[in-house]
Write a structure and sequence with these properties.
Blueprint (H helix, E strand, L loop, with lengths): L13 E3 L8 E4 L5 E9 L6 H18 L3 E10 L2 H4 L1 H18 L2 E8 L5 E10 L15 E4 L5 H10 L4 H12 L3 H5 L8 E4 L4 H13 L1 E5 L10 H6 L5 H10 L3 E3 L5 H7 L8 E5 L1 H13 L6 E8 L5 E3 L1
Parallel strand pairs: 4-5, 9-13, 10-13
Antiparallel strand pairs: 1-2, 2-3, 3-6, 4-6, 7-11, 7-12, 8-11, 9-12
Length: 321
Amino acid sequence: MLSQVKVHPKNDDVLFSQNSSDDAGVFKLTDDIALIQTVDYFTPIVDDPYTFGEIAAANAMSDVYAMGGEVKTALNITNFSVKKYGADMLSFILQGAEDKVHEAGGSIIGGHSIDDLEPKFGMAVTGIAHPDKVLTNTSSQVGDLLVLTKPIGGGIITTAVKKGFAPEHISNEAIYWMKELNKKAASFLHECNAHAVTDVTGFGLLGHALEMARGSNKTFTIFNEQVPVIKGTSELAEKGAIPGGSKENLKWLESSISFSNEITEIQRVILADAITSGGLLVSLPAEQAKSYVEKLNATGSLGAKVIGEVSEQQPYPIYVN
């Protein structure tokens, strides 16, 4: 669809835009400051409005962290019917977002609302980075290891919640990770010489890995047993809690990924699960990967694991063993 839009000649200060598959747009403001800009919003995925605000804010800010940036400001975007749901519910959503942006060290400086019967909420976020230190999803190097900083499975779990058969301890685990900022995961990226980074969201782990592998002209091997998955995800998927987006992801990925025969259909759909506010997928030198995981897990965020490796380009961009 976007390919049909006739784009004007590129401004030399536009470092990244909609013409690439990176997580955010980047504009060089000065020799020392680049603006990182992104936007995301969606319908509620949890019942509690305050928690929804937290998750939506964490999700929107994630793209800034994936580019190696620091969150500075945000604008709220909401579709909401005060007449139908009441002003209190909206205030809880906004408070959740306010508190999460404050946690990130940023400031909400405004926003826009539309009267709509189907509630939606999210943010436009602006961050900064040095122009020479902006990270992309297209610079993986041969010999790199791949680290995932949060467990996957959130899309399946939230679908099970909607269907009414997700145990509370499993849904609480998913909510914990969706609320978790990627700020800590981003803080060690430059120190550990990360080559390429993306955040894992709607296209699932495999979809975002595919973008990174193709953009880098490399092949990724994912070790399924090493991928962190929220406990209970598989059982919920077997009961039918598979989001339509996850099914579509897997269908889209089929021709680009080689699965070993041992990988079951449920395992494949989990790897393609369309999640919200997922972790960072980081490609970094092998000698730095262990240090990166240890540094991140030492902060109390115990989800980071090495899940794969990068090699020269092969017939398939992704192999799952």
